[in-house]
Design goal:
This protein is an alpha+beta fold. The protein is built from two helices and nine strands; from the N terminus they run βββαβββββαβ.
């Protein structure tokens, strides 16, 4: 495993597909943490949760933005409204980006 900690960055390893997989805490993510830290909801400009490298989720508006072929689709018209059960699931599994603190 190539550790980014020696250079002050997040831990990372090259996955079997050749893509770089980053570890945020103990959760491996395929989205670069630096990118996750700057992405914001196009509607309310707030932080998003990364859920299973397939969705960026805004828990305040309960809107899910798809990630297609590793590219976040942050278009308001492409967002999907989320019900109560899915909201709880996304919040429990989501990896936070930046915070407003």
């Amino acid at each position: 495993m190539d550790s980014g900690r020696d250079r002050g960055g997040p831990r990372r390893a090259v996955g079997w597909t050749g893509s770089v997989v980053y570890e945020v805490g103990r959760t491996p993510v395929a989205v670069d943490p630096t990118l996750l830290n700057i992405l914001a909801c196009p509607e309310d400009k707030g932080p998003l949760l990364l859920v299973d490298d397939t969705v960026l989720y805004n828990p305040r508006l309960r809107r899910a933005y798809p990630i297609e072929n590793g590219i976040p689709v942050l278009l308001i018209d492409e967002a999907v409204s989320v019900g109560d059960a899915e909201h709880e699931d996304y919040v429990a599994r989501g990896v936070p980006g930046w915070t407003q603190d």
